[in-house]
Amino acid sequence: MNHIRLIVTATALVVAIAVAAIFVLNGSRGPSAVRLQPADGRSTNPSVSSPSPSANPTAAPSAAPTAAPSPAPALAGFTCGTSTVPVQAVGSIGFIGDIRTGAHTGYDRLVIEFASGLPGSITITPQQRPTFTNSPRGDSVTLGGAVGLHVVMHDADAHTSFSGPATMRPNGPALVEVRRLEDFEGYVGLGLGLAKSNCYRAFMLTSPTRLVIDVQVV
């Protein structure tokens, strides 16, 4: 019986010595921490701070360059030579009912409104000086301004329906003076004294029927 106890005690002592030896050999190395690496590449170790992505620097907007002012567009339809305004009148008389002027951006306007009918023809001729001949007397008259424009209407009347003045002085930047030069035997003539340029455009409008002459401002 004592022999069996001795064997058991010796076995237990050998096991204890073996366990102690294993502990001594491995005790100097602590368990290694396991570091997980997530899919986005940032470390989950709380002791290691992941660098935060820096925001892209926003560039300060540069001031847009100030565009140079564009020149004013040229007004369409102006001419500096003699022209004939198309009319569709057959055997009628154009009775002038009103003559008026107005100033607009880039041009001064002369409007000749007809109370009834239309002239047979309308011719406009630039002149280098604002000097015109009165008809039928034959004397000359010089209007204000530096250059002129002569408007002649055939088959027209400026005394039956028109009671306005024979001379108008708008003194605009382009149109300085308007004078009736002729109203005799179906011819009506108007002289325009212009400030600098005798370039113009002329056209007919309806409702009411009227001749429009725009003199270019320069």
Describe the protein in words.
This protein has one helix at residues 2-27; strands at 83-85, 94-104, 107-116, 121-127, 131-133, 140-142, 147-154, 156-157, 167-168, 175-184, 187-194, 200-205, 210-216. The protein is mostly beta strands and 218 residues long. A hairpin with a 4-residue loop joins strand 12 (200-205) and strand 13 (210-216). It is globular. Mean pLDDT is 79; it is low at 19-55 and 65-74.
What is the number of beta strands? Answer: 13
β-sheet strand percentage: 35-45%
Weakly predicted, low-confidence segments: 19-55, 65-74
Gap between N and C termini, in Å?
A: 141 Å
List keywords for this structure.
mainly beta, 218 residues, six-stranded antiparallel beta sheet, Immunoglobulin-like, 37% strand, 1 helix, five-stranded mixed beta sheet
Question: How do the strands and helices of this protein lay out in sequence?
Answer:
Layout: H1 2-27, E1 83-85, E2 94-104, E3 107-116, E4 121-127, E5 131-133, E6 140-142, E7 147-154, E8 156-157, E9 167-168, E10 175-184, E11 187-194, E12 200-205, E13 210-216
Parallel strand pairs: 2-8
Antiparallel strand pairs: 1-4, 2-3, 3-13, 4-7, 5-6, 7-11, 9-10, 10-11, 12-13
